[in-house]
Each structure stands twice: as C-alpha cells, then as structure tokens.
Amino acid sequence: MSAAINLDVLNEHRSYLVRYAILQLRDPHLAEDAVQETLVAAIESKSKFSAQSSLRTWLVGILKHKILDVLRKRSREPQLNVPDGEDESELVDALFKENGHWADPPQTWANPEQSMENTHFWEIFEQCNQHMPINTARVFMMREFMDMTTEEICQELAISTTNCWVLLHRARLSLRECLDLKWFGIAR
Amino acid sequence: MLDCKQNTELLSQSLERPITLRERMAMRMHLMMCRGCRNFEKQLAFIHKAARELPRKL
Predict the structure, then answer these.
(1) Tens digits of per-residue pLDDT, A110-136?
(2) Is the pLDDT of residue B58 over 90?
(3) What architecture is the A2-75 domain classified under in CATH?
(4) Chain B contacts of A172, Cβ < 8 Å?
(5) How far apart are CA B45 and CA B42, in angstroms?
(6) DSSP class of A183
(7) Which ipTM was obtained for this model?
(8) Which CATH number fits domain A78-184: 1.10.760.10, 1.10.10.10, 1.20.1270.60, 3.20.20.70?
(9) Which one-letter DSSP state was computed for residue A96?
(10) Pick from A124, A110, A31: nearest CA to A71
C-alpha cells in the first residue's frame, strides 16, 4: 500500500493542504513552505501510512505539526507577544453599552443548518475569519479548526489561560457580528 | 446579577472549562430574561459547529 504514495498522488491533495495552512497561518508563502515540508515528510515516512485512514486525514495530521513548527518559530519573534491590536477591545466595547447590556441585541438567525450546505456561506465564513485580528484568529483556529485544547494553545503560544479565553471570546463575538452583518442579517 | 457582557463571557468559557453550579444558575437566570443572550447562545453553538466543519468544506 505504501507504494501507492508518490508525488502525483500527493499533489492531488496539495491545493487543499495549502488552503488549510493559509487559514491558520494567513501567509501564502509560509503556507506553501509548510505544505512542501509536509509532502517531503509524507514521502519519507510513507511506510507509516496505514490504508485504514484516508490519505488526506493522514496528510493533515502531518501538516498540523508543520504549522505548529512555523508558529513556534514565529512566537519567538516579538510580534506575537505584543498585546493584540486595540481594535478588538474596541469591538467588544461597541457591542455592549456601558451598563453591560447589548447595544444591539442579537436577533434570530434563520436556518443556520441550511447555510452550512451553501458554498457562498463558507466563503463568507472564511472572509469573516480573515477579518479578525491575526492573534485572535490564530487562537480561534488552533482551538476550533486544529482541535487543540486551551492548555495546548496556552503552552504553544506562552500565554495565560485567561488570556486565551479572552481571545477566544473576542473571536466568537467578532465572527458572530461578521456573519450577522454579511450573511444572516441580509435576509432579515 | 450578570449583565449581558459577563453572561456572553461565561457562555464562551463554558466551551473551555467546567462551569460551576453557581455560574450555571446565574447564566440560566439571565437567559430566562434576555432574548438577545438566548440568540447569542444558539449562535455560539452554531459557530462552534461550523468552525469544526470548515476543514471538510475547503
């Protein structure tokens, strides 16, 4: 079965892997590099692939490690340690009044389940994700997209648990607001 | 009493850690009275689900 893994087969998955990596890294060049390393690692360790899992799942598993390597290298650079831009706390401030009540209470979303069948919805979802400040988006995607625990994320990024919760919450508020504006609110 | 801002923070944290009984009661009280937060709670669950679905939609 390992003979079935060659560059041609792997290349069929390349564009998917690149999109996956871009979502997390938000940098096409870094994403390309991570995918390149993933494919090399896949060739090198193809004997470890068991036909019981799908090739894509296996490749994504390798890619996650490569993405974390990139993030690790970058977290040593000062950029990540700087507190996130002010615009997100501004977002939270704008959503709530001074007394802590909603400035504009969330309204019902019509047929959210049905939206998940709509390709355009996913484009909006990706856009809204890109719209978030980079550190907020990164923590959110590590949590929800790469399925890491809060503890793992804190360790990886060397931030406190509380800080992690705050970033996750801001991400959710920001996504909710963006989906409401660009998708669910339009039909209202 | 929780306000909406605190309540949304707790709702979000309940995806990350076990919530104490006291916190759960406080959230329930708030949700009973607040339609905006009830909608938010549902939307939070949806966003959580959708984000996990995203890898399959790429």
Answers:
(1) 999 999 999 999 999 999 988 888 888
(2) no
(3) Orthogonal Bundle (1.10)
(4) 12, 44, 47
(5) 5
(6) I
(7) 0.95
(8) 1.10.10.10
(9) B
(10) A31
- C-alpha distances (whole Å) from A97 to each of A31, A44, A103, A105, A112 are 40, 56, 5, 11, 27
CA of B32 vs chain A CAs: smallest distance (Å): 15
CA of A26 vs chain B CAs: smallest distance (Å): 15
In chain A, domain spans: 2-75, 78-184
Q: Which residue has the tokens 């959230």?
A: B27
Q: Mention every residue, 6+ apart, whose C-beta is less than 8 A from residue A60.
A: A17, A20, B55
- How distant is the Cα of B11 from the closest Cα of chain A, in angstroms? 9
Q: For A2-28, how does the pLDDT look when each residue is reduced to its tens digit (9 = 90+)? A: 446 788 888 889 988 998 898 888 888
Q: Is the confidence at residue B17, as pLDDT, over 70? A: yes
Find the closest chain B residue to A168 by CA distance.
Answer: B12
Residue with tokens 């390709």: A119
* CB contact A120 to B (< 8 Å): no
DSSP three-state, residue A102: strand
Give the percent of chain A with pLDDT over 70. Answer: 89
